[in-house]
Amino acid sequence: MIALDVDGRTIQVEAGITVLEACLQNGIFIPNLCFVKTRKRPHASCRLCFVEIDGLDRPVPSCTQRVRDGMKVRTDTEPVRRLQRSAFKLLMSTHICTPRECPTQGRCQLIRTAKLLKVSLKPSPLERLERDVDPVVRLGPLVHYPYRCVLCGRCVHVCGEESGHGLLTFAKRGFNTVVATFVSEGEEGPCAECSACVGVCPTGALTLEAPETAESEEPGRAADSGG
Amino acid sequence: MHKLDPEKRLALLAEEARKRQAQASREDVPTLRIVMSTCGLAAGAAETRAAFEEALERRGLEARIVAVGCLGHCYAEPLVVIHHPASGFPPLCYYNIDPGKARMLVDSFLLDGDPALEYVLGAMVPNDLLPAVTDFPRFSMEQRVVMEHCGAIDPHSLDDYLALGGYGALATALGRSPGWVLDEVARSGLRGRGGAGFPTGRKWRLAAEAPADSKVVICNADEGDPGAYMDRTIMESNPHQLLEGMALCAYAVGAEEAIVYVRAEYPLAVRTIQRAIDDARKAGLLGERILGSDFSLHIRVFQGSGAFVCGEETALIQSIEGRRGMPQHRPPYPVEAGLWGRPTVVNNVKTLSTVPAILTRGAHWFRSIGTEKSPGTAIFSVVGNVTHAGLVEIPMGTTLRTLIFDVCGGIPKKKAFKAVQIGGPSGGCLSGDFLDTSIDFDSLTEAGAMMGSGGMVVMDEDSCMVDVARYFLDFTQNESCGKCTFCRIGTRHLLLILDRITKGEGREEDLELLDTLSRDIRDGSLCGLGKTAPNPVLTSLRYFRDEYEAHVREKRCPALKCRALTAFYIDLDKCARGCDACVGCCPVEAIFTTRGRKKAIDQELCVKCGECVTACPPEYDAVVRVSPAHLAPIIERPQPSEGRG
User: Fold this and answer.
1) Which intervals hold domain 2Fe-2S ferredoxin-type (chain A) (predicted)?
2) Which of the residues A58, A131, A156, A175 would you substitute to probe the B interface, choosing the one with the greatest number of B C-beta atoms within 10 Å?
3) Is residue B183 part of a domain?
């Protein structure tokens, strides 16, 4: 066990883990979307888990830093919050929040992040960006909602590296990047419906259930899920 | 010990090469060297060559035609150097030789001995008869280390390279030790020419010391900046120099495998480098037990699919491994764990091509060129509004003013200089205040631009800086891999904001938003592409803020470039009665005849293509472009009944 100082509090953690894990284990919430413990190399793509570490001149993603004994970490400095708010606003400019239909039922990472950062779920001052995607896409047996997807890549990782199915992948590039599959619509392909991808999705963009459009038309059901 | 040492083996090879060369060239036969690299071919060098061949055959003349690489003088392509010993003239350099001039030269020079001096740029060597090209600033102010033999030798001939002492540095190194190469490169102070300027010696030492059984050397030839073509030219003009540099690097770090990562959009470079690899292997200069030593190296070509981001080293490695070309978080750096987890040195074409010269002439000599912290030369492809566009190799420390105005001949058409974009889409736009900045890694970074890999776009007074920033952002957001939030979504927002400013829909708060968002993207992105993508916005905002303000506040484009903010009108005092040159050229029939039988433009119909400006005879010069658009006087179209009255 080694000790590190986070926001003036000393925490004891096992050696070899990342600063992000150390904080999360000790109840210090750092916004994060793309982190998966089993990745050999941090994906570091969501750009939310910034912290400041003594000795480094600018904020760094805490998922890329291994803990060191005596390390001094600050999670709530102005430069950290500035980058986090900026990244969050960028994500919200392409994310459509529909709390009533959302399978996360309010336990969405984005809502939690907004609360911590004390910002609204609206992208302002940025404008909402239109993406050239369908609202609902079938990925083999999975149902995918691209407007909820933040392209963190957790599903792609667990499907390929952990479950060994390799059903999911990124397709297209840049702003048009989407999660896709080579399996035809509705077919199973190599998918064993293990729902690992559904479980790791931080924003409820993947389900194994029937598309919600049909669901939400039934009166009552949508209201049950709350806001 | 009957084994010959590498240097003696190479000496034998070079001697054979010189013998073969002597047999091929005869004193009485003229030699025509035609620049046939991609720049030459684009200017019509293939047609010029065909015209020479046809004319020679028709006249029954004998001449040796050699296709050479680029001389760097792309403004003068197609370039031909004719050496006609019997005429008594030194080798002469002819510029802009189209097929007609080629046929004429065969008749007048090769047949009659008249060199047609009006088409001569200069003699290739100093002489008593006529000025030599080396007297011109475009030649004399350059200092060629990497490009020394470009355009002089046949890139497809190993003999040409060997005859000039090629592979000499490799043979020397093989006779000494990898440590000697590492020391010499470290002492030379060479910094990576790919953009960031990391000390090459330190990178190689890290790879050499990395514990691993097998290591890899990768030459990064995935050149993607708009307007930059230094790496392509070097590969097309002197491929063996690059291969020798790669072999030296591999020997120094202990690698037996090397890869040239070149984009598939460079087919001629791919063919040239592949042929060079094959030739060198046959001669025992690559492959197993090079020059009889214990060192083996296998070099292969990997063709990239043209994604800009694959020029980033971790994305490049992903792409070779068959994955999606997305940058990875560093560390680990490739020198620790690169291709397939093995220690990997990734160096740019120019870096590797510099190494043979350093080892041949010594680190001390290399340090004598350039500045203390950036020794050596810099190669730029200078393009845009500049008289002598092309490839230029200058010592580091030369000022931008010298490079643009002295070496490259300044801005054409007597226009004023406005800005220079250095380092491609990742670099910055520098204003005239920075013309006396020294060209080296640190000074350019300090000014807000960057050395980059060597793309330089010169812009005159007619360039709108907001539009230029929009152009580069359009490029980077299109080339973003989509992995991290800031680059994927942030650059898209930047582009949309710039887009609406150029359309006159900009808002006051947009300037602040551009600035803060650019800073966040710079500080928050994962890889170098994202971190540097906002540079064109940040620098143009800093140095040309007045232009942004004019667009937003006055809906005015000072450079008269942005279509939505400008309008064309015809100055009735200048327009000639009865002339209708502009009427026919207008694609939307927006030009009508006024009551006074002059012409006017219907602003409702005009699409602002500018054709009427070109069509209006220069003696009238009556079409005026103004900004903001409402400055154009509105002239009523006469009613049909009125027109006849």
Assistant:
1) 1-79
2) A175
3) yes
Write out residues 25-54 of A within 8 Å (CB-CB) of B. Answer: 41-48, 50
CA distances from B190 to A192, B219, B322 (A): 55, 16, 32
- Count Cβ atoms below 10 Å from residue B95 Cβ, excluding itself: 17
The pLDDT confidence band at residue A147, using thresholds 50, 70 and 90, is very high
- For every residue of B91-119, which 3-state class applies, written as one string? CEEECCCCHHHHHHHHHHHHHCCCCCHHH
> What residues in B contact A83, CB-CB < 8 Å?
520, 523-524
What's domain A2-90's architecture?
Answer: Roll (3.10)
Residue environment code for B544-564, b if the CB has 16+ CB neighbours within 10 A, otherwise e: beebbebbbeebbbbbbbbbb
Residues of A in contact with B480 (CB under 8 A): 173-175
Same domain for B459 and B472?
A: no
For chain A, report the end-to-end CA distance as a whole number of angstroms. Answer: 41
Residues B274 and B306 in one domain: yes
3-class secondary structure, B422: strand
Range of the domain at B448: 377-463
Question: For an interface test with A, which of B305, B309, B489, B519 has the most A Cβ atoms less than 10 Å from its Cβ?
Answer: B489
**Which residue in A50, A58, A91 is closest to B489 by CB distance?**
A91
The residue out of B321, B346, B367 marking a domain boundary is B367
Query: SS3 of B469, please?
Result: helix
Q: Tell me: the pLDDT tens digits for A63-83?
A: 999 999 999 999 999 999 999
Report pLDDT for B183: 97
Question: Cα distance from A3 to chain B (closest Cα, Å)?
Answer: 23
Distance CA B249, CA B251 (A): 5
Helix, strand or coil, per DSSP, at residue B165? coil
Domain endpoint, select from B463, B488, B517? B463
Distance from CA of B371 to the nearest CA of A (A): 28
Is residue B242 domain-shared with residue B314, that is, in the same domain?
yes
**What is the reported pLDDT for B641?**
65
Residue spans of the domains in chain A: they are 2-90, 94-224
Q: Does some domain include residue B5?
A: no
The phi and psi torsions of B11 (rounded to 5 degrees) equal -60, -40
Q: Is A2 helix (H, G, I), strand (E, B) or coil?
A: strand
- A residues 116-175 near B, CB within 8 Å? 125-127, 129, 150-151, 153, 169-170, 172-175
Whether residue B485 lies inside any domain: the answer is: yes
Cβ atoms within 10 Å, residue B17: 20
- In CATH terms, A94-224 corresponds, of 3.30.70.20, 3.30.420.40, 2.60.15.10, 3.40.50.300, to 3.30.70.20
Within this chain, do residues B259 and B351 fall inside the same structural domain, yes or no?
Answer: yes
What is the per-residue pLDDT for A223? 37
> How large a percentage of chain B has pLDDT more than 70?
99
Angle at B467 between CA B466 and CA B470, to 5 degrees: 90
